[in-house]
Design goal:
- The protein is 44% helix and 16% strand.
- It is an alpha/beta fold.
């Protein structure tokens, strides 16, 4: 069993699944690749609109029904990928609906040109109001190409997530090598697909699992593709992975 804790499978919510059929095909592919728990994490920003939560819940129920048709052992959990901005802190004080599976963990992303100090201060601000940040697709940020910065964030208790397609080299050999260095230093907590569709940005968990098993061993692969996410999503104390 694998857990994909970062996906854009909810139809018509963001730039992910365009409609119900696209969502169904995404779920089917994920299930075929061994994903039994999938977290729907649509993009959220503070200008999303008052109807965002209602639309997310409607789409979530629809996707849960689809998953039941695909496999009785497939489980869909609800979350969001939060774009960090100063107003987000107030939003999180107001509601717990933006976290991963109703825990205190939050999946957070930034603009690509963000500087490192901004990221670090944002992580501290989220921790200060009682949340445990998960930094989404860390490999995308030029400000985080330095390993010592990843180490510093890890020492702060930040959970580091990378995308499966980056691990397998779809985004370039240099990035693939960089992520392997991070993994060998045990600086990656979670591998997820960040799937948006079945063609341009598809799920690729199977290929990633196969590659990680060969390069890092079965135990390591299980840790970053299943057990860390399991602890995070179902923890009672939210004390971290």
């Amino acid at each position: 069993m694998f857990i994909d804790m970062h996906t854009h499978v909810l139809p018509k919510i963001d730039d992910g699944a365009a409609d119900a059929e696209a969502a169904f095909q995404m779920l089917k592919k994920s299930y075929e690749e061994g994903v039994k728990i999938l977290v729907a994490t649509p993009h959220y920003h503070c200008q999303a609109g008052e109807d965002w939560e209602e639309r997310r819940q409607t789409a979530y129920r629809q996707v849960c029904d689809m998953a039941a048709q695909i496999g009785s052992d497939m489980q869909i959990l609800l979350g969001a990928e939060l774009f960090y901005e100063s107003q987000l802190l107030e939003e999180l004080k107001r509601t717990n609906n933006l976290t991963l599976n109703h825990t205190k963990f939050v999946l957070v992303e930034f603009s690509l040109d963000v500087n490192y100090l901004y990221i670090k201060n944002a992580m501290r601000a989220l921790q200060a109001i009682g949340y445990f940040p998960v930094l989404a697709h860390v490999e995308r940020y030029p400000a985080l190409t330095r390993i010592d910065r990843i180490e510093e964030l890890a020492d702060m208790g930040i959970k580091i997530q990378v995308n499966a397609e980056s691990v397998t080299g779809k985004n370039g050999w240099h990035l693939k090598r960089h992520l392997m260095k991070l993994m060998r230093q045990d600086l990656i907590d979670l591998v997820a697909t960040d799937a948006h569709d079945t063609e341009k940005r598809p799920a690729g968990m199977h290929a990633c699992v196969k590659y990680l098993t060969r390069k890092m061993g079965v135990d390591y692969c299980q840790k970053v593709c299943e057990s860390n996410a399991q602890h995070l999503l179902f923890c009672e104390t939210c004390g971290g992975v």
